[in-house]
Amino acid sequence: MIGVLIVDDSAVMRQVLSARLRENPGIEVTGAVADPIFAMEHMNKSWPDVVVLDLEMPRMDGLTFLKKIMEVRPTPVVICSTLTQRNAEKSLEALSAGAVAVIAKPETGLKKFIEDDGGDIVAAVRAAAAAGQRRRTRTPAVVPAGGRPAGAGAPSARTVLAPPSAPRPRSQASVAERLIAIGTSTGGTQALEVVLTALAPGGPGVVVVQHMPEKFTAAFAARLDGMCRVRVREAKDGDPVLPGEVLVAPGGRHLEVLRMDTRYRVRVFDGPPVNRHRPSVDVMFRSVAKAAGPDALGVIMTGMGDDGARGLLEMHKAGAFTVAQDEATCVVYGMPREAVALGAVDRETPLSTIAEVIHHHG
Prior knowledge:
Elements: E1 2-7, H1 11-22, E2 27-33, H2 36-45, E3 50-53, H3 62-72, E4 77-81, H4 83-86, H5 88-96, E5 101-104, H6 110-137, E6 158-159, E7 179-184, H7 188-197, E8 205-210, H8 217-227, E9 231-234, E10 240-241, E11 245-248, E12 254-260, E13 263-269, H9 281-292, E14 296-300, H10 309-317, E15 321-325, H11 335-341, E16 347-349, H12 354-361
Parallel strand pairs: 1-2, 1-3, 3-4, 4-5, 7-8, 7-14, 8-11, 9-11, 14-15, 15-16
Antiparallel strand pairs: 6-16, 10-13, 12-13
Helix pairs in contact: 1-6, 9-10, 10-11
């Protein structure tokens, strides 16, 4: 049974979210309180498995409370706040401080939001609980804020398929013709920090899909740009994919890669969600399989669900070298597990070595 504590100053939110969570077998709402002060009193009596936390509250803001939780007893936290839409920087800081996921709620219409998107919150709570269980039973898998990987004793990369030949060598195409595609979801903000900050300038262009709310990805890309040696920015329709640059798909829109002679450009467009996501990793990977074939390298990292698994299989069949983050270093080993199960992965490797694999094969 997953014990959940809801901390939100909105009585309506506490009521509708409690009711939505209680509908799901295996989830028990152990408490629903109005602010972190009441939450601390509750947690001193009964510590929850997962905390669903608003960021903007009286007496103590959610971000300060999150940091206190992580200092005292690291616990999976799902952020659910309107502040994520108005102030993306606060949400990014919450993820860096240890939050597992961020769910953006609207200013009004909370009941309809829970009816329409309550499944996302339930899935996030289950993923957070699973991440907490792994944290208790394994070497710590979460990458600390600042991009330095945890777990010095992480396992080495391994070939997870048994192809008739050795793992595929680095493409002989020019740097401009090579392409790196990375897809990730829950836990991906920290994982991307680790990978992208380790990339050297002058390498192949990179396209990224990170499941994020609309208006969130621009701030995320800007934050990464300030940390990395490569340039990172939110993609715009028609942008070229240039060596030494990283394009992040904007929240709420799909991203495809198109080949034009020896160069690539991105198409950013509206469309129905794929695998319940927009942007979708599958949409990007499938386009990369067509546009770049064996000149591409695909990486699937931490995230719940199966978005990206089938697209990575298409990349693999097209001759691309494909990589999955291993279970020990994933916050949520969902997307990589599905890709491995499909036979889409050439190499499964810890987070700390993904950049090295990219350098070798990219």
